[in-house]
Design brief:
About 15% of the residues lie in helices and about 30% in strands. The protein is globular. The chain starts with a helix and ends in a 5-residue tail after the last strand. The strands form four sheets. Strands 2-4-7-10-15-18-20-21 form an eight-stranded mixed β-sheet. Strands 1-3-6-9-14-17 form a six-stranded parallel β-sheet, with helices on one face.
Length: about 190
């Protein structure tokens, strides 16, 4: 490794430690070490839990809006979330251990009501917890909607929109996402 590369690595590590300190001071629960780049956590800091080894790349947004006690966003050990991904919780979003989430993904646990005769913005949110198991790979640009459970060792293809449960070890793709095949040794 060149001297310049080593100096950049040291500077990035120091920046990550400063961000960890800042988010902890705001109330984010960071267990152990987390690699935190230039991310956004605009509010409800106390509703976010990052386990040891979590890595959040540039421009990741962790957004909690009035999450109930015990709810919010929880990201398991050694999971990586790539650039420009947004996790948007009003109930609970749980991401397991060792997950890889590609860039430009959107994961949510709610949507708006749309009853006739009332503006959408004035209608209450409708929510259901969203759960992503361990060792899940979510490709670039995928969207995971409210109430979805993705089983351990599953793969969500790039650009898929997941509207219903994904079995452990399944590979899903499409809009809406449909099972394409099973991974041979998903257990």
């Amino acid at each position: 490794m060149s001297l310049a590369a080593k100096l950049i690595q040291i500077a990035r590590g120091a920046s990550s430690r400063r961000r960890n300190w800042w988010f902890r001071a705001l109330g984010v629960q960071i267990e152990g070490r987390a690699w935190v780049r230039n991310i956004s956590i605009p509010r409800d800091w106390h509703s976010i839990r990052l386990a040891d080894g979590v890595a959040l790349d540039d421009h990741v947004v962790l957004l909690c809006t009035a999450c109930p006690s015990g709810g919010g966003i929880s990201i398991g050990n050694s999971s990586y979330i790539n650039r420009f991904t947004m996790i948007d919780a009003s109930i609970a979003i749980m991401i397991g251990r060792n997950c890889m989430i590609g860039p430009h993904c959107y994961i949510t646990d709610h949507d708006h009501g749309f009853a006739p005769g009332m503006l959408v913005r004035d209608q209450p949110l409708r929510g259901a917890a969203t759960t992503i198991g361990d060792n899940v790979w979510i490709g670039a640009g995928a969207i995971i909607l409210k109430g979805v459970t993705i089983g351990d060792n599953a793969v969500v293809a790039a650009g898929a929109i997941v509207t219903s449960a994904v079995a452990p070890g399944a590979v899903v793709a499409g809009v809406p996402a449909r099972q394409q095949r099973m991974i041979a040794d998903a257990g």
